[in-house]
């Protein structure tokens, strides 16, 4: 049996792909947030290198879970991932939002393009 041919998929970015940056919680610093002035900063968070920082307006998540699905395994390079679930409007980025990129494991690409590596 002949093996299927592997082809490289090249992704392009267009304005539709960038639309998510204008929605909560990805609104850039200085832009109006859906909560306006009522967003109360309670918990500060950051990525491992500290380039991306954010605030949560809630003390506790709506839920938390371990996920063992194949997509989470691929995305995190681990047998599972732990997720704390918050409403998008309860999270606001205050630094590094311009370096964020939406990642989808469904594009059959191997590897990650992180802004800090």
UniProtKB/TrEMBL annotation:
Keywords: Lyase, Metal-binding, Zinc. Residues 1-32 are annotated as: Disordered. Residues 43-117 form the CENP-V/GFA domain. PROSITE patterns: CENP_V_GFA. GO terms for molecular function: carbon-sulfur lyase activity; metal ion binding. Belongs to the Gfa family. PANTHER family: CENP-V_GFA DOMAIN-CONTAINING PROTEIN-RELATED, GFA DOMAIN-CONTAINING PROTEIN. This is CENP-V/GFA domain-containing protein. It comes from Colletotrichum salicis.
